[in-house]
Amino acid sequence: MSQSERLVLATRYRLVSEIGQGANGTVWRGHDELLDRAVAIKELRLPEDLSQDDRVVFFRRTLREARAPAQLRTHSIVEVYDVVTEQGRPWIVMELIEAPNLEQLIERDGPLPPERVAHIGRRLLDALNTAHKAGIVHRDLKPSNVLLDGDRVVLTDFGLAFSSGSASLTKTGHFMGSPAYVAPEVAAGEKATPRSDLWSLGATLYAALEGRPPFERDNVMATLSALANESTPAPQNAGALAPVITGLLEKNPTRRLSHARAVDRLERAMAGPRAGRRQATPRYRLMAVIALIGATVASCGIGATALIVGMMRESPGPSPTAHASTPAGRPGEAAPPAGVASSTLVVRARNDSCKIFVSVPGTAMRVLSDETLGKGEARQYGEEHINAVIYDASACDVWVNGQEKPLGKPGERVGYTVTKGSGG
Fold it and tell me: Are the CB atoms for 343 and 382 separated by under 8 Å?
């Protein structure tokens, strides 16, 4: 056991094991012996070459990192319990969230489906709204500062945050923040504002959808040059989220989406087609989708249109002669799982590559599954409205309202938007 792991801070916080390291210090799993609960403890290291004045700034920034979330009591912002000084440096004690951050998830799984990104974006808008109403600007929103604990989305690391009533702690000539996620006006030297955080949110959601932020280049200077001089690239995988992403990534902050408009557009995207309308016959449904494609070309670009065309191909309505009885299954394969005929959606793994994301759309999207099934495993869903993403269409058998869907190509990602009894 190292000397640090034997350390007890303020006679109550015992360091248990190291969780991870970053540029500014180490995060430890700890135990609060007074309250008998697990905690996370952030150990902040002071660079050796800091002057006395810089050390004062460092300590003030540490207190700011602790005070900002401590003022913001919300489920979407990490909770801070205490700040202590030990061995001449500060330590922040906070709630322990043993979950991956968004950056790790993108690196592990690649781009995420729009349904999940919409859920993440909605929760982050809640967190920013709470912070901005308290006069606090985060200034460093990026995927590594977003923890994903099941359905919970948590914004962390307020080290660069400032409130409207506090003095700036940024030294002249020092760039603060993450170049790939910083707003253009901040990179140009202007003061960060709530709309700067909204740009960073847009860049974060763009990275979740595309696998990398919009202006990331090989080095800091190239990234900042692209940010200043190049047009914002259109997201290719955003689907219905495209208007949200492009609105948040408007370079002119006065034309950028406000918080309220971002919430409105995001909730429209999450809700999907309006529920409760009389189901059209296949012929008229096809005409309605063609009209929707025309409108989408004008408003969202080719990427969104391709998504709608894909949904038409993968999710046709039932034929007039279709029966609701359980299908017999493909020749030579196991019979369909029990309950197929009465389920809105059934997915069964053909092999160990059957990865799925299933959710119920609405103002607060509910995630039903986000997992990779083992061969032969099946999942059934009976909810009225369901969105589903199948990451490898050749790896999963899918039934929609009792009807078996054709297998796709290896590696093909297929989306389904299903209303119970509609035929998919």
Answer: yes
Catalytic pick among 140, 157, 392, 397 = 140
| Alpha carbon distance 71, 68 (integer Å) | 6
Distant-in-sequence, close-in-space partners of 110: CB < 8 Å, separation ≥ 6: 211
> Residues 219-270: pLDDT tens digits?
989 999 999 999 999 999 999 999 999 999 999 999 999 999 999 999 988 8
Q: Which residue has the tokens 């990534």?
A: 249
Give catalytic status of residue 140 as yes or no.
yes
- Side by side, the strands of the sheet bearing 396-400 are 378-381, 345-349, 396-400, 403-404
Provide CATH code, domain 102-164+177-271: 1.10.510.10
Backbone angles phi, psi at 197, to 5 degrees: -60, -35
Residue 122 sits at φ, ψ, to 5 deg, of -65, -45
Element (H, E) at 125: helix 114-133
pTM over 0.85, yes/no: no
What distance in Å separates the CA atoms of residue 114 and residue 206, rounded to the nearest whole number? 10
What is the distance between the alpha carbons of residues 193 and 200, in angstroms, rounded to a whole number? 11
Write down the residue that tokens 């040059």 correspond to: 225
Beta strand spans in 146-298 (E): 146-149, 152-155, 162-163
* pLDDT band per the 50, 70, 90 thresholds, residue 24: low
Q: Which helix (H) or strand (E) covers residue 387, if one does?
A: strand 385-390
Taking CA atoms, 4 is separated from 1, 205, 318, 345, in Å, by 8, 37, 65, 52
Given this model, what pLDDT does residue 299 score?
41
Q: What is the DSSP code (8-state) at residue 328?
A: -
Q: Percent of the chain scored above 90 by pLDDT?
A: 42
Burial class (CB in 10 A: 0-12, 13-18, 19+), 331: exposed
- Give the 3-state secondary structure of 47-97: CCCCCHHHHHHHHHHHHHHHHHHHCCCCCCECCEEEEEEECCEEEEEECCC
SS3 194: helix
Q: Retrieve residue 331's tokens.
A: 């020749």
420 a known binding residue?
Answer: no
158, 132 contact by CB (below 8 A): no
Residues 9/26, Cβ–Cβ less than 8 Å: no
Q: Are 247 and 195 in contact (CB under 8 A)?
A: no
Cα three-residue angle 316-321-324, rounded to 5 degrees: 75
The CATH number of the structural domain formed by 4-94 is: 3.30.200.20
Q: In the predicted model, is pLDDT for residue 277 greater than 80? A: no
